[in-house]
Amino acid sequence: MMAERERRLGRYRLLDLVERDGDALLHRAVDPANGRAVALWTVPLARFHGSPEGSDTLERFRREAAAAAHLSHPAIPAVLASGEHAGTAFVATESVEGPSLAARLEGRPPPSLEESVATLDRVLDALTAAHRAGLVHGALSAAVIHRSGGEAVVTGFGRTALTAPQATRLDDVSAGGRLAERLLTGQADRPAVAALLERLRDGGGTAFPDADALRRAIVALEARTPPSNVRTTSGRTPRWPLWLGGIAVAAVVAVVAVLPRPPLVPGRAAPVPPPPPVLEAAAATPPEVEPLLPPPPRPSHRPPVAVVAEALRSLPCALVTVEDSNGRLLVTGTVAGVRSGEAVRNAVEANPAGWTYGLDLAIADAGFCAPLSIVAPALDANRGVAAPLALTVESTGEDGLALDAGDALVLEVAAPSDHAVELRVDYFTVDGT
């Protein structure tokens, strides 16, 4: 019985030790209440005692773990729980099964340009979402990137204060640049790739100002790099979808513009109209031969933004906005409870055929369902007027994080000068008050 107790931390039953980083341990664990497998990082609380720096680190861990729990991005495993128990600080996240990128690169031919761009695109998009939420990874490398369900997943978020308390966003961007060098070196014979690699090597950590700038430069490689003349009959592997993550601090969520990423079309070319008579000889071309460049996507396949927006507005406990951001469907807003967030995600996945899309949802406590339902009709009415009221949040909490109880909420309101405005503001904070 003693051995069994020693293999538990709170409600979690510890299985095997996966990784050790000093006195920080990563265990594979399970929650007996539901049988869910989790990844459990632990650090002795004794590390934080006895110095002001230790106390600051522990407080940072608490803030970042709380912020990470609100972060929603398909490439970031959800933080399920965090806190302190029996002299140990811990973070429990979704368990990710699948090989690491480091294992994929070990002793194997380098990945194709398309595979490398897709991986870096998804990883850097996740990093951008985390940075917007005030989070730093602190240990980004091929070892923490796993392929799960055919897509890249970045593990390790939420533990930075435990294992890398001095890490900064710039450190993350530098790590992203090193990862890009490792993945793209095999394509250095392409001029666009060679130019990017030279910029990364010369500029080091300052080659790009942030993760999203690096992501955009990498995504642009495919547009600037002509495809190979040799193509397989299986067609082109679709890219992984782009998503936006992040956290909102108020019921009004600011939309962050992102560069578009053109949706892919299937590898086989779409049917083309019959050629004119002067080109009848071209009909002898075997149907299996594909053009070097696929035809552009047909916008007519996309449902109108209004149709998607109407479907989402019918969902309870959700206050979301849908817009076309330079050819990309962007869904932002606030939902009350995890189930409401899942309902929005499922509805988005079911509706936007032909769109690439992103989600930026803040998950409030389920008790905010009623307030969000009250606000929705007012916002719909505001969108319908000729000169709608515009509202932006001008204040953020400590270190750019979301507001906590007692922090000042500063809003900037823009309204027509010839209209009287009555303003009532209700907001929630990340600590639920």
Instruction: Please report which band the strand proportion falls in: under 5%, 5-15%, 15-25%, 25-35%, 35-45% or over 45%.
Output: 15-25%
The run of helices and strands is HEEEEHEEHHEEHHHHHEEHEHEE
The N- and C-terminal alpha carbons lie at a distance of: 41 Å
- Gyration radius, in Å: 24 Å
Numbering strands along the chain, what is their spatial order in the largest sheet?
1-2-3-4-6-5
Give the low-pLDDT segments: 1-5, 228-270, 278-300
Number of helices: 11
Strand segment count: 13
Structural class: alpha+beta
> Considering DSSP H and I runs of 4 or more, what fraction of the residues is helical?
25-40%
Present the secondary structure layout.
Layout: H1 2-6, E1 8-9, E2 12-21, E3 24-31, E4 36-44, H2 52-69, E5 79-85, E6 88-94, H3 101-105, H4 113-132, E7 145-148, E8 151-154, H5 160-163, H6 169-184, H7 191-203, H8 211-224, H9 305-313, E9 318-325, E10 328-336, H10 338-350, E11 357-364, H11 369-384, E12 390-393, E13 411-414
Parallel strand pairs: 10-11
Antiparallel strand pairs: 1-2, 2-3, 3-4, 4-6, 5-6, 7-8, 9-10, 12-13
Describe the protein's architecture and organization:
This protein has 433 residues and is of the alpha+beta class. Among the domains are: 2-94, 2-Layer Sandwich (Phosphorylase Kinase, domain 1); 305-433, no CATH class. It has helices at 2-6, 52-69, 101-105, 113-132, 160-163, 169-184, 191-203, 211-224, 305-313, 338-350, 369-384, and strands spanning 8-9, 12-21, 24-31, 36-44, 79-85, 88-94, 145-148, 151-154, 318-325, 328-336, 357-364, 390-393, 411-414. Helix 4 runs antiparallel to helix 8 and helix 6 packs antiparallel against helix 7. Residues 1-5, 228-270 and 278-300 have low confidence and may be disordered.
